[in-house]
Design a protein that fits this description.
With 232 residues, the protein is of the alpha/beta class. Helix content is 42%, strand content 21%.
Length: 232
């Protein structure tokens, strides 16, 4: 099962420690902040799989952070769970209408929060919880660490495998070179941007080894996407 990236936006340090510890033990890669403005920046930088967002935080409110994330094209479908001490029905409705996928009122069990996060991911981004990824004839078996295209085995190196996996988890989405570096390379600060181009080229060669069409779309001044329709 893949490591899922969680952005935790909570300014209560004790509660954030507890939530972060619980999600870390559940296999999540947790990034924390207690500031709304920083949360919006981190959403771009780390490309989280899910956001847990407190209503009352420093800077702009959690409800406004949720609203802004929903307005952005690249985070419009990002799973968001709202945390709040507000238990009134009108507040819950407001949070959900703003775009939250789920809503949990304090106090709560951290284990329940993990379960709710898993449920949201299964519903909103089923590829995150999958053992196999499949798109446009490309099949990736995460347990066996194997790749096939139209039933034929594809030989890819470790970095190309991670790159392809990231694309398969987000088909059609355009990623900049910097975003790909941060998502695929463990120590991206030591890697040059042009390295991404080298591995994209290798991945294209591997995927086209049996005569298949090029599914990796280059978007000028933006980056790359795995896009069967755009590459047709």
């Amino acid at each position: 099962m893949q490591t899922k990236r969680l952005l935790l936006v909570e300014d209560d340090r004790t509660l954030a420690d507890l939530i972060g510890f619980t999600f870390d033990r559940a296999g999540y890669d947790v990034t924390r902040t207690g500031d709304g403005e920083e949360a919006l920046i981190l959403a771009d930088e780390i490309n989280p799989d899910i956001v847990i967002l407190d209503w009352m935080i420093e800077g702009i409110s959690g409800i406004e952070v949720c609203r802004r994330l929903r307005r952005r094209q690249d985070t419009a479908n990002l799973p968001i769970i709202m945390l709040t001490a507000r238990g009134e029905e009108d507040d819950r409705i407001r949070g959900l209408e703003t775009g939250a996928d789920d809503y949990i009122t304090k106090p709560f069990s951290p284990k329940e929060l993990v379960a709710r996060a898993s449920a949201v991911l299964r519903r909103v981004r089923p590829a995150i919880a999958a053992e196999k990824l499949d798109y446009a004839g490309i099949e990736m078996d995460l347990a066996a660490h194997r790749v096939r295209r139209d039933g034929e085995p594809i030989d890819v190196g470790p970095t190309e495998y991670r790159l392809l996996r990231h694309f398969l988890e987000n088909p059609g989405r355009v990623f900049s070179r910097q975003q790909l570096l941060e998502a695929v390379w463990p120590h991206s600060e030591d890697i040059e941007l042009r390295t991404v181009d080298v591995h994209i080229r290798r991945l294209r060669i591997a995927l086209g080894a049996n005569g298949g069409s090029d599914l990796i779309r280059t978007v000028r001044s933006a980056g790359y996407a795995l896009d069967a329709e755009g590459s047709a």
